[in-house]
Specification:
Shape: elongated
Number of strands: 12
Oligomer: single chain
Distance between the termini: 90 Å
Helix content: 25-40%
């Protein structure tokens, strides 16, 4: 081996060469982290979307088994006498005013679905780290033991579709619309009648200003920013606003995940 070749092999790296190598390593590491982060986000979205789909399928199975749609019962007030919303029966009761939020319906819905063999089979498709054991005692004294969260650990919101409107409510709502007023006059709680689906709107539809379509319950994941927000078309009920909790310049609603795209709640 020549003296010159020996010098090339054993002289080591210069400072510039070391900096170049370190820079290359840093760039490669950044690319790997970016790719890994993107894959993780896609996995989280897929898991959450699968959970929402399985939940809706569980409702379909339950309704098919008993030949009856799920009924959400709105409350007129706090007293026991205010429990009924002109319904012969109900599946999920609304909590008293002051306790109503998007979190309380899901545990009750899961308990209802888990009690039926066909719908429970659909729930079994949801990963265990999303459908999890969570015992909670509610203001009305009931206890639930299961809950469904999204892949980011946040509560999945539920917007129940309205109960079927009576013929007299539909007739009154149509007359109200023809006369230039809203369909709220045909609704005992002054929230409104959805003439397209022939349903009496729920408190949650009104407060979020969204309309359930095809009498399908709507499920909403907050998404990666973990903020529910309001629809981009503006606020619905009182004390609501279009928010940007993580200050990324986009309304929180834009990265929410749904089991289907909701409609605007026209008043």
């Amino acid at each position: 081996m020549s003296h010159r070749l020996r010098r090339i092999l054993f002289r080591g790296f210069t400072l510039i060469e070391l900096l170049v190598v370190i820079g290359v390593i840093a760039v490669l590491a950044g690319l790997v982290l970016a790719v890994g982060s993107g894959v993780l986000r896609r996995t989280e979205r897929t898991m959450t979307e699968t959970a929402l789909t399985s939940l809706e399928q569980a409702i379909d199975e339950l309704e098919l088994c008993r030949g009856q749609s799920l009924v959400f019962n709105r409350r007129k007030g706090v007293a026991a006498s205010d429990l009924q919303d002109a319904l012969p029966f109900m599946d999920v009761n609304e909590l008293p005013p002051g306790f109503v939020n998007e979190a309380y319906i899901m545990p009750r819905l899961i308990a209802l679905l888990a009690a039926n063999q066909a719908s429970a089979a659909m729930l079994a498709r949801i990963p265990g780290d999303l459908l999890r054991a969570e015992e909670r005692r509610w203001p009305d004294g009931t206890v639930t033991r299961m809950n469904l969260r999204d892949a980011w650990g946040e509560q999945i919101a539920v917007v129940p579709c309205g109960r079927p409107a009576t013929r007299s409510e539909i007739s009154l709502a149509r007359e109200s619309v023809r006369s230039g007023s809203s369909s709220e006059s045909a609704d005992p709680l002054r929230i409104g009648i959805d003439l397209e689906d022939a349903t009496v709107r729920t408190t949650d539809e009104w407060s979020l200003n969204v309309g359930c379509r095809g009498r399908r319950w709507l499920f909403i994941s907050r998404g990666p920013d973990q903020s529910l927000g309001m629809p981009p078309w503006g606020p619905g009920g009182p004390a609501t606003s279009v928010s940007d909790g993580n200050r990324d310049g986009q309304p929180d609603w834009t990265d929410n995940l749904f089991n289907y795209e909701p409609g605007r709640n026209e008043r």
